[in-house]
Structures are given as structure tokens and as C-alpha cells.
Amino acid sequence: SPNTIANGLVVETASSTGAGISILSPSSTSGNIFFGDESDNYVGGLRYFHTTNQLDINVNNALALTIDSSRNVGIGTSSPTAKLEIYGSGSTVLDIQGSQGQLFSVTDDLTGDLFSVSAISGIPILNVNASGDSYFDGNLETTGNQTIGGNQTIGGILTVQGEIQGKADII
């Protein structure tokens, strides 16, 4: 029996091939499933555009997600140019949370941290801020040649295995 909150239209079959709904429309148009209420007959929905082979999901009368013919996914954009493109402005654009807090975030507010990576505990370990400064809090192991430019402050122990070459005074 159907769920009581979704029993207005029920498609059911005893066939071993399953049940389905097909929406067939001319190739110059779109196939649509719209959601509305008593004051607005289109508040959200699904639209498949045959001319561009693109699927749009709309929420609150605005585009929320697009999947284009190349299977690129756009959140906040109708023209994604990568497998996943997220567009936002003036706030956190991407936020990935773990059970202990924020693990990764990207913002677009041009102040403070633009990019942040946190440890599993949610404590930031790498930040890049709007002024161009980067902060790293943790152990950094690298191989190959490393270049440090500008005025750098190292709080803690600096261990070097190999040569140190400098073009300025070492204090």
C-alpha cells in the first residue's frame, strides 16, 4: 500500500519488470514535474530540456542544481564547466563537516579565511586568508627543494636534513 503522505497518484504493477512513469515530450521542448501550492503553481520541480539534454532541479522558484549533457553538475549555476562546480557569493560556498566539526571550507567573502582545512577534531590546520597569507599548524614533511620567501616566523623547532642555502643574512 502507498505511503499516506504520497497517495494521490499511485503507479503499481505485479509485473516482474517493475513499475514506471514515462514523460514523453517533443524534442524541442522539456519534460516537467512541478510542485506547487494554493498560492503558487510552481514553487519547485524537475525539468529535462531535450534541446540541451540538461536536467534542472528548482527549489523555491530558483535553480538549485543542474546536470548537463556532459554529466557536469552545477550547484548555483546553470552552466557547469567541471564535473562539480559550486557557485556562491558573499558567504561559505563549500562546507564539509565531520562528526567533530568542520573539516574543509571555502568562502567568498573577501575577508578572513578563504580556504580552510581542519583536523578530524575540527581544529583548523591550514588556512589561506584574503590578504594572501597562509597559516599551517601541524607537522610538515616535504621532499625536494623548498623555497621560503618574505619574512617568515617559525615558532618551534626547525629541523633541516641536508644543506641550507641563503641569499640573505641568516640571523
Topology (elements, then pairings):
Elements: E1 30-37, E2 40-49, E3 54-59, E4 62-67, E5 73-75, E6 84-86, E7 92-98, E8 101-107, E9 113-118, E10 124-129, E11 134-136
Parallel strand pairs: 5-6
Antiparallel strand pairs: 1-2, 2-3, 3-4, 4-5, 7-8, 8-9, 9-10, 10-11
Folded structure, characterized:
The protein is mostly beta strands. Helices cover 0% and strands 38% of the residues. The protein contains no helices and eleven strands. The strands form two sheets. Strands 1-2-3-4-5-6 form a six-stranded mixed sheet, with no helix packed on it. The protein starts with 29 loop residues before the first strand and ends in a 35-residue tail after the last strand. The mean pLDDT is 84.
Number of helices: 0
Spatial gap, N to C terminus: 80 Å
Instruction: State the total count of DSSP E strands.
Output: 11
Helix-strand string: EEEEEEEEEEE
What is the C-alpha radius of gyration, as a whole number of Å? Answer: 26 Å
Give the key terms.
11 strands, 171 residues, mainly beta, five-stranded antiparallel sheet, six-stranded mixed sheet
Summed up, what is this model?
The protein has 171 residues and is mainly β. The chain contains no helices and eleven strands.
